[in-house]
User: What shape does this take?
Amino acid sequence: MTTEEKILEAARDEFMLNGYSGCRMRSISDKAGINKGLLHYYFKSKDALFLQVFDSTFQELMAGLRNALAQDLHLIEKIELIVDLYSTHFKKNPGLPAFVLQEANRDQNSEFLNHKRKNMSPMAGIFHTAVEQAKEKGEIRADIKSEHLFLSLLSLMIFPVLAKPMTCVMMNKTEEEHQTMMEERRAFVKQFIKQAIQL
Assistant: This one.
Protein backbone atom coordinates (compact mmCIF):
# COMPACT_ATOMS: atom_id res chain seq x y z
CA MET A 1 0.00 0.00 0.00
CA THR A 2 1.38 3.42 -0.96
CA THR A 3 1.69 6.31 1.50
CA GLU A 4 -1.20 8.11 -0.19
CA GLU A 5 -3.40 5.02 0.06
CA LYS A 6 -2.55 4.68 3.76
CA ILE A 7 -3.51 8.32 4.30
CA LEU A 8 -6.82 7.96 2.48
CA GLU A 9 -7.71 4.79 4.38
CA ALA A 10 -6.87 6.39 7.73
CA ALA A 11 -8.77 9.56 6.80
CA ARG A 12 -11.85 7.61 5.75
CA ASP A 13 -11.91 5.84 9.13
CA GLU A 14 -11.40 9.07 11.07
CA PHE A 15 -13.98 11.08 9.14
CA MET A 16 -16.55 8.30 9.45
CA LEU A 17 -15.92 8.01 13.19
CA ASN A 18 -15.65 11.68 14.16
CA GLY A 19 -17.22 13.66 11.32
CA TYR A 20 -15.51 16.61 9.68
CA SER A 21 -15.44 18.86 12.75
CA GLY A 22 -14.15 16.22 15.15
CA CYS A 23 -11.45 14.88 12.85
CA ARG A 24 -7.86 16.05 13.38
CA MET A 25 -5.03 15.86 10.85
CA ARG A 26 -2.76 14.65 13.67
CA SER A 27 -5.05 11.66 14.25
CA ILE A 28 -4.97 10.82 10.56
CA SER A 29 -1.17 11.02 10.36
CA ASP A 30 -0.81 8.88 13.50
CA LYS A 31 -3.19 6.25 12.15
CA ALA A 32 -1.41 6.23 8.78
CA GLY A 33 1.94 5.84 10.56
CA ILE A 34 3.48 8.99 9.11
CA ASN A 35 4.45 12.42 10.43
CA LYS A 36 2.17 15.42 10.00
CA GLY A 37 4.57 17.14 7.61
CA LEU A 38 4.37 14.22 5.18
CA LEU A 39 0.57 14.27 5.44
CA HIS A 40 0.53 17.96 4.44
CA TYR A 41 2.91 17.19 1.57
CA TYR A 42 0.23 14.92 0.07
CA PHE A 43 -2.81 16.95 1.16
CA LYS A 44 -2.47 20.67 1.82
CA SER A 45 -5.61 20.97 3.96
CA LYS A 46 -8.27 18.97 5.76
CA ASP A 47 -10.82 20.16 3.18
CA ALA A 48 -8.74 18.79 0.30
CA LEU A 49 -8.32 15.45 2.05
CA PHE A 50 -11.99 15.36 3.00
CA LEU A 51 -13.18 15.83 -0.57
CA GLN A 52 -10.68 13.34 -1.95
CA VAL A 53 -11.72 10.65 0.53
CA PHE A 54 -15.40 10.75 -0.36
CA ASP A 55 -15.30 11.79 -3.99
CA SER A 56 -14.34 8.33 -5.24
CA THR A 57 -17.01 6.71 -3.05
CA PHE A 58 -19.78 8.96 -4.35
CA GLN A 59 -18.59 8.81 -7.95
CA GLU A 60 -18.76 5.01 -7.82
CA LEU A 61 -22.30 5.11 -6.42
CA MET A 62 -23.55 7.78 -8.83
CA ALA A 63 -22.05 6.01 -11.84
CA GLY A 64 -23.77 2.78 -10.80
CA LEU A 65 -27.13 4.53 -10.42
CA ARG A 66 -26.85 6.23 -13.81
CA ASN A 67 -25.91 2.95 -15.44
CA ALA A 68 -28.84 1.11 -13.86
CA LEU A 69 -31.35 3.74 -14.95
CA ALA A 70 -29.93 3.90 -18.47
CA GLN A 71 -30.46 0.19 -19.11
CA ASP A 72 -33.13 -0.85 -21.61
CA LEU A 73 -35.00 -2.80 -18.96
CA HIS A 74 -38.37 -2.88 -17.23
CA LEU A 75 -38.45 -0.34 -14.37
CA ILE A 76 -38.70 -3.14 -11.82
CA GLU A 77 -35.50 -4.66 -13.20
CA LYS A 78 -33.78 -1.25 -12.97
CA ILE A 79 -34.87 -0.96 -9.34
CA GLU A 80 -33.50 -4.45 -8.65
CA LEU A 81 -30.12 -3.30 -10.00
CA ILE A 82 -30.28 -0.23 -7.73
CA VAL A 83 -31.10 -2.38 -4.68
CA ASP A 84 -28.09 -4.59 -5.41
CA LEU A 85 -25.90 -1.52 -5.92
CA TYR A 86 -26.91 0.11 -2.64
CA SER A 87 -26.61 -3.16 -0.72
CA THR A 88 -23.10 -3.79 -1.99
CA HIS A 89 -22.03 -0.18 -1.56
CA PHE A 90 -23.21 0.12 2.04
CA LYS A 91 -21.72 -3.24 2.92
CA LYS A 92 -18.34 -1.82 1.84
CA ASN A 93 -19.01 1.63 3.37
CA PRO A 94 -21.36 1.07 6.35
CA GLY A 95 -20.54 4.41 7.98
CA LEU A 96 -21.36 6.51 4.91
CA PRO A 97 -25.11 7.13 5.45
CA ALA A 98 -24.61 8.26 9.06
CA PHE A 99 -21.68 10.42 8.04
CA VAL A 100 -23.61 12.23 5.27
CA LEU A 101 -26.56 12.78 7.62
CA GLN A 102 -24.24 14.17 10.28
CA GLU A 103 -22.61 16.55 7.80
CA ALA A 104 -26.00 17.69 6.48
CA ASN A 105 -27.13 18.50 10.02
CA ARG A 106 -23.84 20.26 10.74
CA ASP A 107 -23.86 22.62 7.77
CA GLN A 108 -26.17 22.39 4.77
CA ASN A 109 -23.89 24.78 2.88
CA SER A 110 -20.67 22.91 3.59
CA GLU A 111 -18.19 22.52 0.74
CA PHE A 112 -18.63 18.76 0.95
CA LEU A 113 -22.42 18.87 0.52
CA ASN A 114 -22.27 21.52 -2.20
CA HIS A 115 -19.74 19.39 -4.05
CA LYS A 116 -21.93 16.29 -3.74
CA ARG A 117 -25.16 18.13 -4.49
CA LYS A 118 -23.88 18.89 -8.00
CA ASN A 119 -23.49 15.17 -8.63
CA MET A 120 -26.54 13.90 -6.73
CA SER A 121 -29.26 16.42 -7.61
CA PRO A 122 -29.75 15.24 -11.22
CA MET A 123 -30.42 11.67 -10.03
CA ALA A 124 -33.97 12.43 -8.85
CA GLY A 125 -34.73 13.87 -12.30
CA ILE A 126 -33.30 10.84 -14.09
CA PHE A 127 -35.32 8.55 -11.81
CA HIS A 128 -38.48 10.61 -12.45
CA THR A 129 -38.01 10.24 -16.21
CA ALA A 130 -37.57 6.47 -15.87
CA VAL A 131 -40.78 6.21 -13.81
CA GLU A 132 -42.79 8.34 -16.25
CA GLN A 133 -41.57 6.27 -19.20
CA ALA A 134 -42.53 3.08 -17.37
CA LYS A 135 -46.04 4.47 -16.76
CA GLU A 136 -46.41 5.38 -20.44
CA LYS A 137 -45.43 1.82 -21.40
CA GLY A 138 -47.94 0.39 -18.95
CA GLU A 139 -45.22 -1.32 -16.93
CA ILE A 140 -46.36 0.07 -13.58
CA ARG A 141 -49.41 1.68 -11.99
CA ALA A 142 -50.29 5.11 -13.41
CA ASP A 143 -50.83 6.65 -9.96
CA ILE A 144 -47.25 6.08 -8.79
CA LYS A 145 -45.44 9.34 -7.98
CA SER A 146 -41.74 9.18 -8.72
CA GLU A 147 -40.68 11.28 -5.69
CA HIS A 148 -42.51 8.95 -3.27
CA LEU A 149 -41.09 5.87 -4.95
CA PHE A 150 -37.59 7.39 -4.85
CA LEU A 151 -37.90 8.25 -1.14
CA SER A 152 -39.33 4.84 -0.33
CA LEU A 153 -36.50 3.07 -2.11
CA LEU A 154 -33.87 5.18 -0.33
CA SER A 155 -35.58 4.65 3.02
CA LEU A 156 -35.81 0.90 2.61
CA MET A 157 -32.10 0.70 1.77
CA ILE A 158 -30.58 3.35 4.05
CA PHE A 159 -32.56 3.16 7.30
CA PRO A 160 -31.44 -0.38 8.24
CA VAL A 161 -27.81 0.77 7.89
CA LEU A 162 -28.38 3.90 9.99
CA ALA A 163 -30.40 2.04 12.61
CA LYS A 164 -28.10 -0.97 12.93
CA PRO A 165 -27.07 -0.38 16.60
CA MET A 166 -30.70 0.03 17.66
CA THR A 167 -32.09 -2.86 15.62
CA CYS A 168 -29.35 -5.24 16.74
CA VAL A 169 -30.38 -4.60 20.35
CA MET A 170 -34.13 -4.68 19.68
CA MET A 171 -33.94 -7.84 17.57
CA ASN A 172 -31.13 -9.44 19.61
CA LYS A 173 -28.89 -9.83 16.57
CA THR A 174 -25.16 -10.46 16.53
CA GLU A 175 -22.95 -8.75 13.92
CA GLU A 176 -22.95 -11.92 11.82
CA GLU A 177 -26.73 -12.32 12.12
CA HIS A 178 -27.24 -8.71 11.09
CA GLN A 179 -25.09 -9.20 8.00
CA THR A 180 -27.16 -12.27 7.07
CA MET A 181 -30.36 -10.27 7.54
CA MET A 182 -29.04 -7.50 5.27
CA GLU A 183 -28.29 -10.03 2.54
CA GLU A 184 -31.79 -11.48 2.88
CA ARG A 185 -33.18 -7.94 2.75
CA ARG A 186 -32.11 -7.51 -0.87
CA ALA A 187 -34.72 -10.00 -2.03
CA PHE A 188 -37.31 -8.61 0.40
CA VAL A 189 -36.94 -5.01 -0.82
CA LYS A 190 -37.08 -6.05 -4.47
CA GLN A 191 -40.29 -8.01 -3.90
CA PHE A 192 -41.78 -5.28 -1.71
CA ILE A 193 -41.24 -2.58 -4.34
CA LYS A 194 -42.46 -4.85 -7.13
CA GLN A 195 -45.72 -5.57 -5.31
CA ALA A 196 -46.20 -1.85 -4.57
CA ILE A 197 -45.87 -0.58 -8.15
CA GLN A 198 -46.88 -3.37 -10.50
CA LEU A 199 -50.24 -3.36 -12.24
